[in-house]
Amino acid sequence: MSALEDQFVAEARELIRQATDNLIALERDGMSPERIDSVFRAFHTLKGSAGVVELPAMSIVLHAAEDLLDSVRHGTLGAGAEIVDAALTCLDQVSHWVDTFEAAGALPSRAGEDSRVMAQRLRSFLPRRGDEQPAASVPDLPNDAGQGLLPEWVSQLIAAERDAITSRMPEGPMTATAISYEPFAGCFYNGDDPVHLMQQVPGLLAFQIEPREPFVPLADIDPYACNLRLRAISIGNRDEIAALFRLVPDQTQIISVPPEAFPAAEVHVGSGNKSLICKVIEAQCELLRVPDRADELAGCIGAVARVAENALRHGERLDLADTVGRAGALALAQQDAGPLLSALERALAAFASPPSTAVNGVSQAASERPADRVLRVGEAKIEALVNLAGELVVARNALSYSLRQVERKLDGSEVARSIQRDRDAIDRLVTELHGSVLQLRMVPVAQLFGSFPRLVRDVARQLDKKVALATSGEATEVDKTIMDRLFEPMVHLVRNALDHGVENPGQRRAAGKSEAAKISIAASRSGDRLLVEVADDGRGIDPAVVRRKAFERQILPPDELAGLTDEAAVDLVFSAGFSTASIVSDISGRGFGMDVVRTAIEQIGGRVSLESKVGAGTTVRLDLPMTIAMSRIMVVEAGGQSFGIAMEAVSETVRVPPDRVSTIKNNDGFVLRDRVVPIISLAELMKLPGRKRDAAEPRLLVVTEAAGKIAAFEIDAVRDRLDVVLKPMQGLLSGARGYAGTTLLGNGQVLLVLDMKEILP
Amino acid sequence: MADTATPAKAKVLVVDDSSLVRLYYRSALEIAGFEVKQAINGIEAMEKVLSESFDLVIVDVNMPRMDGFTFLRLLRSGAAADVSTLPALMISTESGEQDMAEARVAGANFYLVKPVAEAELVRHVCVLAGVAL
Fold it and tell me: Which of A191, A455, A476, A599 is the most exposed place for a label (fewest CB within 10 A)?
């Protein structure tokens, strides 16, 4: 995708979110001119941007929605639930298209059809005026017979706006549309805005505005009477244009203009200059390629640099002009055209591809928004940076190891001290760099919370419940990875609260509560932990019901159940397969319960707790790390089990033929680069049955180093290299030595990760 | 070489032995906002470029006393950097590859074949002199 398209996708998402938020607020809080204006503007900008990246289907839908919203804005239409629904549905469609566009670079093939259906639906809400005529009946003068029959004003307009037309005209023959719009003198009283209407014409090539009658002396002017004639040439879709003017058919002429009515395309300016600039730069390259220059060399290099700089400056690429200027100076100093020639070739390539910043339409729209002065960087780039910083950390550790060896050999020498100083400096820098790079991934949770107003609204409507959502702590920052993985569990929690927690209005009234339930989502920071709370003021979880369900589902034997405190009983909702919903509903999914939430949260190193009071509501607390501390591990197999070994500790894996293994006092060992390395069977160490081995089979060894010790662990196979979140050993195992922790594998299996420092003999 | 991009206009020297051609170029360029000086052959052109500074020279090939190629070779081998690097547009009646190659060897930055339409001329001059249209 081009930079322009990237920008469009990012901007579209933001506008969609903005419009969604405001639509929901509009429905919740009632009509407000600022809100509807903001929604209208978002649709309007979105429509414009869709035009810039040439997605006509999207423009058509947005245009229809814009008309609808315009009516709401002007009070001809109320902002009822069905209108908000229609606008939201439109946003859903557009959002879906944006996703498709990002993934595939185009809209789905049926987008055109979908857009027409949706546009029609949107327009069906618009009030029909008695005098309105269908768009198709806009008078169409007999004009397709050729240029000779064009009304004179069309030819005059083309002649007068020749430069504007030729500079904007696309390559190749095209059919254009000429529009003449003479609004009635009293048009302002009808609510018409002629100039605004004209501005909405897609694909404008030229536009003229002039008085219809000569203006009377200023003292006699009636400022409420429109005395204008607006004329334009457009290459936009004719049907779209006709639809625009459907309310003023008696005041407009819309005429198709055949290609031959336009001046020859040869006199292109504008976009045509780009190819001229390329041609000029190419000619400069040719000039430099002339061999055997003597006295004229300096003059030619200078002239070439000057002209190339000029051409690039003319093409508004000051950056490239600058580079070329410097290369010219270098070439002059060396009396060699080479540096300039290669700079020109690079500039030519860079100029031919679209510049990243000099795009007018969208980037200008983006700069109009004052807030949000952020740099957008692709996630992949940040990820690459994070990985590099991680590797740097490992390399620094290796340096420490080498330093110790140097110290042993050259104890107290100047060299060792000097290396140590450098190591310390690098140490500090690497730690800081690693920290700052991790900071790049920190994003405010507002991005996550932003999806909930819509969700709550839709689900509440579906369930016929009244719910007010409150969010707080949106500015709290959290690692993007955490946030991404937090989304699903949060959706689950919110849906649970809506579905099971919140009562319907009747029940709430009966319980003496307000009809509208309250759900709150709050984020806060506590030390290096992120706390997220999802709370509702619904019916709460009844420990008695939980006990009964747990019994029915045989989660615990009856005697154990009886011994549980109420809090512990409520915690049983986190058990696998537990669900308090009597009816499996469409809302909270099937068979998924809180256990799924717990697993997901624990996978990212978090904890879930729950507090509930019957009749008063439920609060679920998520206690999460701010960043995911990922460890790179190697998964190995020994004695039929899998173990993780931290990659930092692994120096290498080797296959050693049996004849290189020697036995010293019942212990095996082998020589690796002048060092005797003891061999330890991992299976034996773990008290697992060893595998029978062919005598001639080479032995697979993982050479590990930690805390200055070295050993080779014999394993059966290397399975994988993974980035995982390590969880410290808990419960009974928390005292077990030799383990760095556990991690959950993708298949749900728990993997024990070995602590090499402890294990090495 | 930095000061060529005065955005409003630039100074152009037109070198052609035909007064009609000079008039044609001059009117087109002056309407487009350029300052135009004229010379009727290579020698006069050389005197002009040495006495005042230009942003671009438009030069014909066939002229009495000193032709365009000779003028360009002399210009490019001059000692003063601001003169020897003067951007040059050569406009000739010859469309052959050999003339174009010779223009390149002489140090012409660009080559056009007569007749050149006004708009085309202005467009090329704008690009070569680095000014907006």
Answer: A191
Whether B73 contacts B106, CB under 8 Å: yes
Instruction: Quote the mean pLDDT of chain A.
Output: 79
Q: In angstroms, what separates the C-alpha of A322 from chain B's closest C-alpha?
A: 10
Is A265 a residue whose pLDDT tops 50?
A: no
Domain spanning A443-625, CATH architecture: 2-Layer Sandwich (3.30)
pLDDT digit string, tens, across residues A559-584: 888 888 888 888 888 877 676 544 44
Record: fold of B11-129: Rossmann fold (3.40.50)
Residue A405 confidence (pLDDT) above 80: no
Residue B10 backbone phi and psi in degrees, to 5: -135, 170
Could you give the CA distance from residue A522 to residue A526 in angstroms, rounded to a whole number?
A: 13
The fold for domain A631-759 equals OB fold (Dihydrolipoamide Acetyltransferase, E2P) (2.40.50)
Contact state of A284 with B109 under an 8 Å Cβ cutoff: yes
Structure confidence by residue, pLDDT tens digits, A156-201: 888 777 766 766 666 666 778 899 998 888 888 777 788 888 878 8
Buried b (16+ CB within 10 A) or exposed e, A106-130: ebeeebeebbeebbeebbebeeeee
Closest chain B C-alpha to A300 CA, distance in angstroms: 6
Closest to A83 measured CA to CA, from A136, A50, A119, A126: A126
Contact at CB, A299 and B84, closer than 8 angstroms: yes
How far is A115 from A93, CA to CA, in rounded Å?
9
CA distance A734 to A320: 62
H/E run at residue A320: helix A318-334
Dihedral sign of CA atoms A65, A66, A69, A71 in order: negative
| Contacting residues of A for B2, CB less than 8 Å apart | 325
Of B85, B119, B129, the CB nearest to A303: B85
ipTM of the complex: 0.90
* Structure tokens, A346: 């690079």
**Helix, coil or strand: residue A268:** coil
CB of A556 within 8 A of CB of A520?
Answer: no
